[in-house]
Amino acid sequence: MDWKKVRRRTAGILAAAGLTLAVAGCDTLGYYYQSIGGHLGVMAQAQALDDAIARAQASNDTRLAQRLGLARQIRDYASRELKLPDNGSYRRYANLHRPYVVWSVFATPELSMTLHKWCFPIVGCISYRGYYAQGDAEQYAAGLRREGLETYVAGIPAYSTLGYFDDPLLNTFLYLPEGELARMIFHELAHQVVYVRNDTPFNESFATAVEMAGVERWLRDEASEDARASYRQYDNRRKQFRALLLDTRDRLDALYRSGADDDAKRRGKNEIFDSLRRQYAALRTEWGGYIGYDRWFDQPLTNAHLAAVATYQQWVPAFTALLDSVGGDWTRFYAEVQRIGDLPEAERHAALSKLAQPAVNTGTLNAEDHSSGVGKSSH
């Protein structure tokens, strides 16, 4: 590892954070320290792919060697065919010996689908707060609940440092099905192309649109028939589950915006969540007993579960339509996304709203989600 480069980039982050840290309270200081220390800990465990593959072969771990080789092919494809950054990201590997790299905390009021936001140097205001230790995330969520907020703690297999570091491949997503592995790499690299401060729905929807189109091309160009069939089954289940969640989210949002009193809203909320559980049970039966989304129900259901999912979907139709409008030309697409991203917020959202309508009308939207902890994403 080029530790000189790592130290230089870390110094830049610390310098950018300096003014905030100077006036921050103990809680904020502790959060920044765990964030920086946690990431440097991840980086310290990373090794070059050649070395990782050689070690896997030497220990007769043929599965690991094969997956690292596949990841390298996907990574090369990302830059060659999708015009994503050609840098050191995802060209190293780290085994963290845990199921997720971070755990993100999402929070909402009791009777609202509006996600709480946290503001930080560099990335601006975002709708989640990430921790490198699950216990820390759970502890922070417990504090938010004492303040009257509803919370959801989601395990996240990957995140992007927006190009400040060469993010490594991780054991937390390396063994996903081939299409899912490609989706993960494409999504995280997309964050390095365009990132708009203080607009999580824009950033996540853009990266989701890139991953969707990218994985379709990877499957068409590079994957075996078995890999394509496996991904189609996986993806169809995810789309059904996402549609159920987004429908439930819309029903709750309509309830909270209605003129009903708070007690009536609480009763309606309970009924809607009961309906969600019943519909999911029916889906499981339809899927032949597949339990891949059971973990989503491990925590008591809250608004935060559903608001987190919606964050990754809002502008996907707009970006999908934009990519179609430039004939799938990635360079032109990224330039246009950057142009829209540079607009003032109201103009940006108006432009995206105008783009979104044709995508909805023609049925081209494929709902995807990343870091909400549903299926996979991110951050």
Automatic annotation (TrEMBL):
<dbReference type="Pfam" id="PF10023">
    <property type="entry name" value="Aminopep"/>
</dbReference>
<protein>
    <recommendedName>
        <fullName>Zinc protease protein</fullName>
    </recommendedName>
</protein>
<dbReference type="InterPro" id="IPR014553">
    <property type="entry name" value="Aminopept"/>
</dbReference>
